[in-house]
Specification:
Blueprint: E1 4-8, E2 11-15, H1 24-30, E3 49-55, E4 61-67, E5 80-82, H2 101-108, H3 118-129, H4 181-188, H5 198-202, E6 213-216, E7 221-224, H6 228-237, E8 242-244, H7 250-256, E9 263-266, E10 276-278, E11 282-286, H8 291-298, H9 303-308, H10 315-318, H11 323-328, H12 336-342, E12 346-351, E13 354-359, E14 364-366, E15 369-370, E16 377-384, E17 390-396, E18 407-415, E19 421-429, E20 436-437, H13 439-445, H14 452-462, H15 476-494, H16 496-503
Parallel strand pairs: 1-5, 7-9, 8-9
Antiparallel strand pairs: 1-2, 3-4, 3-5, 6-7, 10-11, 11-16, 12-13, 12-16, 14-15, 17-18, 18-19, 19-20
Protein name: FAD binding domain-containing protein
Domain FAD-binding PCMH-type: 215-388
InterPro entries: 2Fe-2S-bd (IPR002888), 2Fe-2S-bd_dom_sf (IPR036884), 2Fe-2S_ferredoxin-like_sf (IPR036010), 2Fe-2S_ferredoxin-type (IPR001041), 2Fe2S_fd_BS (IPR006058), Ald_Oxase/xanthine_DH-like (IPR016208), Beta-grasp_dom_sf (IPR012675), CO_DH_flav_C (IPR005107)
């Protein structure tokens, strides 16, 4: 079976002979929809952005922007995709077509010059245009009268227009011509979608259900299992299997390293991997929920995650990437691991007929190696409650956003009424072969008074953590210095009055 069916720009069509590793971008361009372009092939420029219909609860749809250069077209079997060509109305016998409001504002306000990036910008902007939570406000600095913008209001330089447009929704789109101001002007000029808007009306109906998909070729297979048990059956038959949810990691390997796994299993729509439950003693997050879905679902319940989200790649990536995928790759520079370590997270590993829970601090055994067996998957993450009252995440990178970190530090401590540190968890990334807990620093803090002297002493220990190396992102000396400074910065931020006295 190699045929897939997609609804593209409102028209359902069947397609035969789709290769399991054909990207959605190439697939769309083969259909003559050449608005989406390839710029970087790594999900960093947004020139390939399109809209997909994703669930927004059980009975509504949310238009979501994603990079088309990363996921395989097979992953969209039975789904709905809208490209830049499908936003406006097509020319017909009664006259020329009409531009979509986003397209019109981009043209009117000079938001497009060479035009290469414009279709991607338009699709990302359209997703924000249709975001149900977007509401007008008189405040242009992010204090939106209680309006929650997917956690982004925690970013120090968050920008939100008077029309409620979250400018960070465009953070994964790059333009080399306009200087961005006209693009921002276009975004802030957008009103509310009209009642007759077809894409707005489509949001009032359920999103497409996942389709069972199986594509076999002589060298590779793509399968979307219908059940979790079927997934486990396939794991047993193919040891070189690759699990894929958002494809934000595998897609780069396919594009840049020309990796061609013999079997790809799509897990992003399995119900058992899409849980989000909050109880009195823990939060359980399904491994296949996108980071944007987690952000909306938690709605600010975990402040440390709210600090992470705006710094994790871009909105285009977060709309597809998952915690399960970010941890499963085993990368020592993945941004989520330090934060999850500081939160005391456990990983729920599932195999056929059984589950086990492993503390994340004990999950990694070496570079891109873990305790997970070949017959197991990451089903969920569990964060214990209550949360520490003092917490912060620091990402040191060459760019403020949408960059790989040189060093990542997450700190969570609890202090009692006598100003004594009663617990401490510190997660580090980019300074060892795996993400690590800074155990020696934690020991230097627990039981000590929360003073500058304690912070300075612990910071000296922090500088000695891990085995940092020299590479293209930073030197080992710089990484050690950043470890030390991050703890001093944390103390200064948590004790602003004392920090000011010391500086005077």
């Amino acid at each position: 079976m190699s045929e897939i069916r997609l609804t593209i720009n409102g028209h359902e069509r069947g397609f035969a002979s789709v290769n399991p590793h054909t990207r959605l971008l190439d697939f769309l361009r083969e259909q003559g929809l050449t608005g989406a372009k390839e710029g970087c092939a790594e999900g960093e420029c947004g020139a390939c952005a399109v809209l997909v219909a994703r669930p927004d609860g059980d009975d509504r749809t949310r238009w979501t922007s994603v990079n088309a250069c990363l996921p395989p077209a097979a992953a969209f079997d039975g789904q709905e995709v809208v490209t830049a060509e499908g936003l406006g109305t097509a020319p017909g016998p009664r006259g020329p077509g009409q531009l979509h409001p986003v397209q019109r504002e981009m043209a009117t306000r000079g938001g497009s010059q060479c035009g290469y990036c414009t279709p991607g910008f338009v699709c990302a902007m359209a997703a924000e245009y249709y975001r149900p939570e977007r509401t007008p406000s008189d405040d242009t600095h992010g204090e939106k009268s209680g309006t929650h913008v997917q956690g982004e209001e925690h970013a120090a330089d968050h920008e939100c227009g008077p029309n409620g447009f979250d400018l960070h929704s465009l953070s994964g789109n790059l333009c080399r011509c306009t200087g961005y101001r006209p693009i921002r002007d276009a975004a802030y000029a957008l009103g509310e979608p009209e009642e007759t808007d077809l894409l707005r009306r489509r949001q009032e109906k359920p999103a497409p259900k996942p389709s069972y998909t199986r594509i076999d070729t002589a060298t590779t297979r793509f399968i979307r299992p219908a059940t979790l048990d079927e997934l486990f059956d396939h794991l047993e038959e193919a040891p070189e299997v690759r699990l894929v949810a958002g494809a934000t990691d595998l897609g780069v390997e396919v594009n840049i390293r020309h990796v061609r796994p013999p079997l790809v299993l799509a897990v992003d729509r399995l119900d058992e991997l899409r849980t989000l439950n909050v109880s009195d003693d823990q939060i359980e997050i399904g491994a296949a929920l996108s980071l944007s879905e987690v952000e909306r679902g938690l709605a600010g319940r975990v402040p440390l995650l709210d600090q992470l989200f705006p710094q994790f790649a871009s909105r285009l990536i977060r709309n597809a990437a998952t915690f399960g995928g970010n941890l499963g790759t085993g990368s020592p520079i993945g941004d989520s691991a330090p934060v999850l370590l500081a939160l005391g997270t456990s990983v729920v590993l599932a195999s056929k007929g059984e589950e086990r829970e492993v503390p994340l601090a004990e999950y990694y055994t070496g570079y891109r190696e873990s305790v997970r067996r070949p017959d197991e998957i990451i089903r969920a993450l569990r964060i214990p409650l209550p949360l520490a009252q003092h917490a912060a995440f620091y990402k040191i990178a060459k760019r403020r956003f949408d960059d790989i970190s040189s060093v990542a530090v997450a700190i969570a401590i609890e202090v009692d009424d006598a100003a004594t540190i009663t617990s401490a968890r510190i997660g580090l990334g980019g300074v060892a072969a795996t993400p690590i807990r800074a155990r020696e620093v934690e020991e230097a803090l627990i039981g000590q008074p929360w003073t500058r002297e304690t912070a300075v002493n612990a910071a000296a220990v922090m500088a000695q953590q891990g085995t940092p190396i020299d590479d293209m992102r930073a030197s080992s000396r710089y990484r050690s210095a950043m470890l030390e400074q991050s703890l001093l910065k944390f103390w200064a931020q948590e004790q602003p009055d004392q920090a000011q006295e010391v500086s005077q």
